[in-house]
Amino acid sequence: MNSLEGGTYEIIQSRLEAQKKDLIERLNSLNSARKEVFGSIETKLIANKRIVTENSCTPSDIVTIGNLSIFGYNVYFGLRTDIKIEDVFSIYKYENEEFKTQNLDLLDDETFLFDFLNLYKYYRDTEFRKFFISGNYLHMVFQLSDRTSDIKTFKWLIREDHLEYIDNRSDHEYKFPKQHDFLWQEATRDMQKYGKYPHISILDKVFVETIGGTLTIKIEDNTESGKGILDEDVDFPDQTLDDGDYKFADLGNLIALQIKPFQEEPRFFVYNHKLQEVQKIDSIKDAAILLPDNHGLIFSNGYYLQTGEYKIFENTLEGLKFQERIASPNGEDFMYVFYEETSGQYVLISYNLISHEVKTPIICNGFTILNEGELCYFKSENEQTKNHVVQIWQTPFVKGDLIPSVHKDSFIYKIGNKDIVKAMADSNSIITLLNKNDNYDGLYNDLAKLSQNILDGYYWIDSKDTFELNQPLLEIKNTANAAIDEFEKVVQLRLHAQEIITKTQEKANKLFSTIKSSPLDNIDVFVSNLAQLRSLRGEVISLKEVRYVDESFIENLEKEIVEQTERISQYCVTFLLDEKALEPYHLRVQEKQAEIEAISKVAEGKKLEEEVNQITTDLEMLIDIVSNLKIDDTSHATQIINNISLIFATLNKVKAEIKNKIGTLGGEEAKADFAAQMKLIDQSIVNAIDRANTPDKIAESLNKMSVQLEDLEARFADYEEFSELIIEKREEIYTAFETKKNSLVEARNKKAISVENSSKRILKSVASKAMTFNSTEEINGYFASDLMISKLRELIKQLTDLDDVGKAESIETELKSAKEDALRKLKDKQELYEDGENIIKLGKHKFAVNKQNLDLTIVFKDGQLNYHLTGTDFYQPLKSDILNSGKKYWNQDLVSENSQIYRASFLAYKIFKNYPVEELTSMTPEKLQAVVADETSKNYSEGYIKGVHDADTLLILKTLLEKHNALGMLRFDSKTRAFAQFFWQNLETEKRETLNQKMKSAGEVLETFPKSSQFDYILDDLEKEFKIFSENVEVVKNAQIEPELVATYLFQELMKDNSFVISLKAKQLVEDFQKVLAAKNTDLKFKQGIEKATDFEAKIQLAFQWVSSYIKDSKTENDLEYVYEVIALLLFPHESSEKIISVDADADITGLAGSHSTILDGTFHFNYHRFVNLLKEYFEIDVPEFEQFRNERHQLTLQLKENLRLHEFEPKVLTSFVRNKLIDQVYLPLPVVHLAQINF
After folding, report:
1. How confident is the model over 1039-1065, as pLDDT tens digits?
2. Which InterPro entries does the record cross-reference, listed alphabetically (predicted)?
3. Angle at 468 between CA 466 and CA 471, to 5 degrees
4. At what angle do helices 787-801 and 723-770 cross, to 10 degrees?
5. Could you say which DSSP state residue 546 is in?
């Protein structure tokens, strides 16, 4: 892909490639400079030299002490028994590229010689095996038998260039270091994942198991599948997950695995998480050593780097042990020494830290490194010989530092060779990563992280002396970070491309299979197969536009499609030469022609038209096939095309008939379709207007409706009669939406004004409250957390949401000013005021402070109402007919209480009046208490005190409900019931019977349907008749009985029977009255007097004189309220003989907490009728008058306050004013001298 075709990801890759080249160039320059400063020793072959021994022998090992090399070997002695030191050891000095023989003085020690001779004397199979250096000690190791563990060592202390013999008892000190640089971790049961194919989860990166007959390593945590990236057979297929042993070591990108199937030897693997691949490495079981800076793992026959580089060197050695790691002074090169005890062979593997390279291993029987870094090693010959070839290599493993002194002042020298080598090694790790394909997991994350680590880890990285390595590294880091997100997109694109390839391949395989099994005797089969091949080829060609698609796959598949197409085309042409080949098409055309008459809808016509067009397409394809193929006999091609042309002629006729049929049907369907579409648009208009609740949404909905109309207009563009209707509908829509928009704007403005007014009221309260605080902390706390402030900020947000930013900013500014004014006022108070705020000190003088706010009120003075300005002597008589007529309200502060009505009684009756009695009666005490509490909270202006009036209200309400339910028809007071009887008994018989029948019928209805209200006309008739009665009877007229109440009582009393209820008190009074008359022998006179009365009114008046006189003479004052009920019983004794109710209407309510003239020692004497009548009258008359009185007083106050313009007399401080010492100490004292002399 060229740069023009590439995307962002390809551009990023190009940048990284350029940055990599820049980094390599700078590293090469730095490496050259480093070598110049610290010197450089290349590994190269110097020479092949020979060491000559006196006896033919097999060399075993060589070691260098100082500038002398000790050569150890084994001589076949035969029958000799006197073994000498020179038969085993020789000493040489390497000079002028030659090994020169030296005497054995280096080993001249009597004890050693004695021990040496005894060793060979008593162990005839003794062989010298090797030299072993541990610290400053040299061990000469001898093997005493065939067993490698049967050894004896002679221990020497190395003192610079000579040896000091220690002893022969240090065999235990001869041991190899740890063979693994890491600790194996045992897999625990917690790591087991169960399922159809259970496995062990190793660090959630790799998953292993040994069940089902195979050792499997997987990279997906999927227990439903047994497939993995590696499978090996195991000896026991029936073993379970617990039968195997699993160990692992986390080595960064690598995970070392030790897996032991049941009753088998362990198997060793290395898994690379970045590449998601695994390698089986058997040599790890013997030794595995970590490379410097965790570069990877090295073992006796190969290595595995963190970046994925892996190699196994071919050799036949097994069981090698790691002996030592040799480092060069420059910190760049390392040599790893492995030893095989049986054959006595060494494997030397060198690793370069900068280049991350491992050189080909050296396999030898002995080696030594001289002071100048010369590596000398030899290999044993199959036969004993005196001449032993030693190969000499120059290596960087010199002893000591070889730094030229002339560069000690350079910046690179001051940094140090090892630090530079380490930085170059890390930088080469970046180059290695840049050479990786992007399937390397976390490639760009690793690049960014490693680049940052280098930038942070080396202080000198940006120096010009070190070639400014920071520049390419910083660019690589930034580019890698940019690549992370882009790579995620590329991964998705590659997955998408792979999915398309898979689907296309499956589709192609299916088609090829179908073609292979298709018969060659039907033209439809040929046409179908060729059409599918043509379509498939088009899909394959279009795949070239898909990014990251496999282009070779496209080319191969397209080639195969072309071959299939050519093959089938040849068969098709041969088949078309048959006269009957095109007969199926003739039949299909005839069938379509026959179907034309049956068309009844446009949709059916279009479907038939599509089918005919498909026939046309198939025939055109046949013509293309014949035209493009090379046919030797042109007459054959002409014959086929002529046959097809005959079909085309008929086909064109059919198409014309179908088009005409569609045109005929289209006009009728268009009208119906247009009507339906217009109806749908009408419904959409209604819904859109209903949903649109903001001007913006109105505009959006209008735009959508306009688009719908445009689509409709385009759809019916061929029908001119619809255009005018669409234009009219467009105007209608615009008008409707514009009207709704104006309505919303108006509502929004009203809401904004309402919110603004609320905000100003709260602001006024906030400003007043802020002035009362005595510390800055209190003011700050108030403005930070008070609920009113939060409410104000919420209102500001509402104004902002209403798009009224000007009002919102204004309110917010006033809020800030209120806080600043409060802080300024507090500062003045603290610095100028004394004794709280009562005295202000100006200069040397002190003045009392009037703290009253200037305000206008209405007060009662000198027997009349007056206007009064607070804090002044201003009084002005008030003139208002409404206020003067409401004198009884002058001293009343609350609507809920006056001298006769306690505010708890007011609230109890209010609840009783506002709630259905049945609902209140059915409430639990807790629910009733909740209702009282709710009403108390809602009606806070009525002055209720929580804990006092709510508790008293509950007691009074309970008594009221109890009496209301218990009294039954006695709920109507005695006087009302008595006059109802007077009216009823005085009513004409015919009217009475008519009304009585209506009430009985209504009673039957109510018994079945209690909630019915279809009887109001009866109440109207009763009320009308009672008004006539009261007008004609003076005593009734003077009694001021409510006609509505009488009608209600009579209806409820007589709808079931014809008797009237009487109170027990009235019954007792009648009996007592009759007893008194009998005792005084006046009962006959009373009876005769009643009978002789001229009319009904006279009877009532006469009876009233007798009964009232009796009650006043012998009863209490309260009994007078029953006088008319007693009269009714005397006049109509037979009407109420069985309906006596003994419930008393009086009750004493105790435990009241409030204070009022009606309450004595916490007790309120309750009488149902007086209570209800009093409160009913108060609610109907006094409450409206009091509200009118209070409103009038408020309006008059506001009017005069506005006329007086009191706000102009209120002092205000400019927000920009700042009081300072000059004002306090100079300006303010000047006028106060004169003020102090004025007598206010």
Report:
1. 778 888 888 888 888 888 888 888 888
2. DUF3686, DUF7902
3. 155
4. 160
5. S
Whose structure tokens read 């009392």?
A: 848
**Could you give the C-alpha distances from 784 to 762, 771, 779, in angstroms and in order?**
15, 16, 8
Which residue from 1073, 1068, 1072, 1067 is spatially nearest to 1086, judged by alpha carbons? 1073
Confidence (pLDDT) at 5: 41
Percentage of the chain with pLDDT > 90?
Answer: 19
Distances in whole angstroms, Cα of residue 945 to Cα of each of 266, 899, 914: 89, 18, 21
Work out the mean pLDDT of the chain and round it to a whole number: 82
pTM of the model: 0.47
- Characterize the bridge pairing of strands 1062-1063 and 1140-1141: parallel
- pLDDT tens digits for range 1081-1090: 888 888 888 8
List the alpha helices (DSSP H) in 389-469. Answer: 411-415, 417-434, 443-457
- Residue 655: which residues within 8 A CB-CB, separation 6 or more? 609, 612, 613, 616
- Residue 236 phi/psi, 5° resolution? -120, 100
Q: What are phi and psi of 326, to 5 degrees?
A: -110, 125
- Strand order from edge to edge, sheet including 839-842: 833-834, 839-842, 845-848
Strands of the sheet with 127-134, listed across from one edge: 127-134, 137-143, 151-159, 162-167
∠ at Cα 638 (632, 639), nearest 5°?
105
* Distance separating alpha carbons of residues 1202 and 1197, to the nearest angstrom: 9
- Give which of 76, 106, 72, 77 is closest to 90, Cα–Cα: 72
Q: Is 936 helix (H, G, I), strand (E, B) or coil?
A: helix
Contact 860, 887 (CB under 8 A): no
Name the helix (H) or strand (E) containing 642: helix 634-691
pLDDT of 683 > 50? The answer is yes
Task: Kindly report the length of the chain.
Answer: 1240
1005: CB partners within 8 A, 6+ apart: 1012, 1014, 1015
Alpha-carbon distance values, 602 to 189, 654, 711 (Å)? 73, 16, 20
CA dihedral 1119, 1123, 1124, 1130 (to 10 degrees): 120
**Cβ–Cβ under 8 Å, residues 376 and 94:** yes
Tokens representing 1215? 């927000």
* Separation CA 974–CA 296 (nearest Å): 113
